[in-house]
Structures are given as C-alpha cells and as structure tokens.
Amino acid sequence: MVADVLSGIYAWVTSLCCAVTCSTQSMQVNERNLRVVKLLAEGGFSFVYLVEDDEKKKYALKKVLAQLPEASELARWEVQVHQSFKHANLMPLIDHAVVSTASGAEEFRLLMPLYPDGTLLDLAVRLMEGGKRLEEGRALHLFAQVCEGVLALHSHSPPWAHRDIKPANILLSEGDVPVLMDFGSVLRRVRSMQQAVIDF
C-alpha cells in the first residue's frame, strides 16, 4: 500500500517536471537519439511524447515507469504483445528499450509511429464541435477494420482478448485506417476464441 502511494507521488512529480523540461529533454532508444518535442498524454505511470530523431522524423514514444516488479512484468507483456503481430489494424512497435533510473526503477521506452490525425475519439469530438456526425458508411468502414484487428488477437494461439477497446484507443492512420493500441490490458491464456469474445 505504501509502495503504491509512493509510486503515485513519484509519477506525479515526474509529470510536473516534464511540463517544464520536456522541450529540451532527449532520450535514447538503443541507437536512436530522440528529442522530446512535447508531452502528448499521460495516465498512471505512463507518458506519451512526441519525439523526433536526428533527421527530424517524428514518432510517438511511450514511457512507462515501473517501480514494482509487477509493473515491470506488465510492461514486458505489453512489448511482447506488440512484437507478436504485424497487422495493419494493430499498433506496430518500431523499437523499444529498458533503462534503469536513479531510483532503481525500470523505465520502458516504446517507440511507435506517430498518427497526426489522433484517435477516433478526437475525430468524434471534432465532428461534434462542427455540428456534424460520423457518416454511417464511414462508421461501418472503421468498425469492420477494428474487427479485423480484434480477430487477429482472437486468432492468436492461445487467443488473446484486448479488454479495453474504446474510441480513445483507436488511432487513425492515413487512408482512414483504424489502428488499435494500448495492449497493457490484453488478457493472455484465454482458453478459446469464444472465451476471448466473452472477455472482450
């Protein structure tokens, strides 16, 4: 209990520090030197940054602070899920690294493509603010492709269940292709595809 509270305080302080320093912060993922442009999102013990390499190519970098062994296991599991698939509707992992922090914690850095159009939730908000709605044909197109990504997870041996499918976890790539992300809640050791659907 105390460890969880301390971990929460550490993550909060880290997020405050980032707000001040991330414009000049740099990170390394194996051989890649990356400059942090800005903080895109944060939640719990994870932070997502817009970063760019020496050639000014932009990426999204997810940083996970793992203070406890259980958190490290979950982060490693998320990396494993990413590495298990090469599918147009599932978020690819370009590279990743694990580094030790001064406090002895592990810091996981997951480098992924940048999707400038944001999430399906962002799209819905933009349309609502403009007094518009998502056209039925486009909605069906997006839904069908999200189902293709889910099918890939359910077809794994053993089948896996995502368990956190929502508009905020669906990015939009070029050509209006939805990309399912955030594999931290993926359930392993599902007994069958039917069970994966139930857990969905």
Fill in the keyword field for this structure.
200 residues; Phosphorylase Kinase, domain 1; Transferase(Phosphotransferase), domain 1; 6-stranded antiparallel beta sheet; two-stranded antiparallel ribbon; 8 strands; Protein kinase domain-containing protein; Prot_kinase_dom; signal; Kinase-like_dom_sf
Topology:
Blueprint: H1 2-21, E1 26-29, E2 32-43, E3 46-52, E4 58-66, H2 69-83, E5 95-100, E6 106-112, H3 120-129, H4 136-154, E7 170-173, E8 177-180, H5 193-199
Antiparallel strand pairs: 1-2, 2-3, 3-4, 4-6, 5-6, 7-8
Written description of the protein model:
A six-stranded antiparallel β-sheet has the order 1-2-3-4-6-5. The two termini are 30 Å apart. Strand 3 and strand 4 form a beta hairpin. 36% of the residues lie in helices and 26% in strands. It has 200 residues and is α+β, with helices and mostly antiparallel strands. The chain is globular, with a radius of gyration of 18 Å. The chain has two domains: 2-112, 2-Layer Sandwich (Phosphorylase Kinase, domain 1); 120-199, Transferase(Phosphotransferase) domain 1 (Transferase(Phosphotransferase), domain 1).
